[in-house]
Write a structure and sequence with these properties.
UDP N-Acetylglucosamine Acyltransferase, domain 1, 25% strand, nine-stranded parallel sheet, Udp-n-acetylmuramoylalanyl-d-glutamate--2,6- Diaminopimelate Ligase, Chain: A, domain 1, 21% helix, 353 residues, alpha/beta, flat
Length: 353
């Protein structure tokens, strides 16, 4: 594995750099980050959820990162690092680890712009940016400091990418939005005159496409994280620190607030607005604006095909069934009112007896 070709670090170095309380040998050297299942004696692993606690007893990891609640169990098996949030600690550790490994193993310094990249004369590329093989940066585009474009990334004319961003292979920034006007002779293209503006600390997954705006810019705010194979159409705005999983499709002029999450394969029909702190479950189709924070879901569960067909047929009749129920309710209420207002004989119960 790629992590295994260097001398690694000591547990003492990890604790000194990132914090946490080390119970064990600070001189123990670890050469790889690994899962609990695959870890060996020279590996560093972590336990992020209680449901994996049983693996503490069986893992061969040299050291395990755990929360305070699992300290005793972790110590019983060997060395451990105790931290408040193991998953967050692991994320920070992975960045520190990659940086240390790169510093120690780099034999030849790589050029900041690969020779095969095509950079327009009028493009502005920060001196600390890195442009990978076969990338294209068109006229008037701006690439901020410490931003990295992996292989085959295209940044179209006039698009702006902020600082400390990472664009994975195949990303396309600023392709034309999908805009056509119908005519008797066919479709007439609407020229897309806006651009794309991406803030700082944004990560864009492989083969994701962010279209340029028709008039105003498409905007991706600071801290947004986008997975692979996402389509963001023209004039959308994605709010600060929102995270979107793979294969999501977002139609034009959709505004998604800050600190939102969107599960994989969700879809947005366009011209919608989502408030801050809205969380969309996987495969949900969003067809209306959402103005209140919370979790929203909407998918038809998988079933045996025959049963699914019957249920789907019933769903198509829901509107008719609703109207029939309302009519029956109205009829029942009318009968109750008629019965309660009917005249009586005037005889008392004693007289009837």
């Amino acid at each position: 594995m790629w992590q295994g070709d260097w001398l690694g670090v000591t547990l003492g170095e990890v604790a000194a750099a990132l914090g946490g309380v080390l119970y064990g040998d600070p001189a123990r050297r670890v050469t790889r980050l690994a899962s609990l299942q695959s870890a060996g004696p020279s590996d560093l692993s972590f336990l992020s959820q209680a449901k994996w606690q049983s693996q503490l007893a069986t893992t061969s990891a040299g050291c395990v990162i755990v929360a305070p609640a699992f300290q005793a169990a972790a110590q019983a098996r060997g060395d451990c690092l105790v931290v408040d949030n193991p998953y967050l600690y692991y994320a920070q550790l992975s960045q520190w680890w990659a940086q240390r490994k790169a510093e120690r193993t780099a034999a030849v310094s790589q050029p900041s712009i690969h020779p095969s990249a095509v950079i327009a004369d009028s493009a502005q590329v920060a001196s600390t940016a890195q442009i990978g093989p076969l990338c294209v940066v068109e006229a008037g585009a701006v690439i901020g400091a410490h931003t990295r474009l992996m292989s085959r990334v295209t940044v179209s004319q006039g698009c702006v990418i902020g600082e400390r961003c990472l664009l994975h292979p195949g990303v396309v920034i600023g392709a034309d939005g999908f805009g056509f006007a119908p005519s008797e002779a066919g479709w007439v293209k609407i020229e897309q005159l806006g651009g794309v503006r991406i803030g700082n600390d944004v990560e864009v997954g492989a083969n994701t496409c962010i279209d340029r705006g028709a008039l105003d810019d498409t905007v991706i705010e600071d801290g947004v994280k986008l997975d692979n194979l996402i389509q963001i159409a023209h004039n959308c705005r994605i709010g600060r620190n929102t995270a979107i999983a793979g294969c999501v499709g977002i139609a034009g002029s959709t505004i998604i607030g800050a600190n939102c999450t969107v599960g994989g394969q969700a879809g947005f029909t366009g011209h919608l607005t989502l408030a801050d702190d809205v969380h969309i479950s996987a495969r949900t189709l969003v067809t209306r604006s959402i103005h209140k924070p919370g979790q929203y879901s909407g998918s038809f569960p998988m079933d045996d095909h025959h049963a699914w067909e019957k249920n789907a047929a019933s769903l198509r009749q829901l509107s008719t069934l609703r109207d029939r129920i309302k009519a029956l309710e109205f009829q029942a209420k009318a009968q109750v009112r008629a019965a309660s207002s009917a005249p009586t004989s005037g005889l008392s119960q004693d007289q009837v007896a």
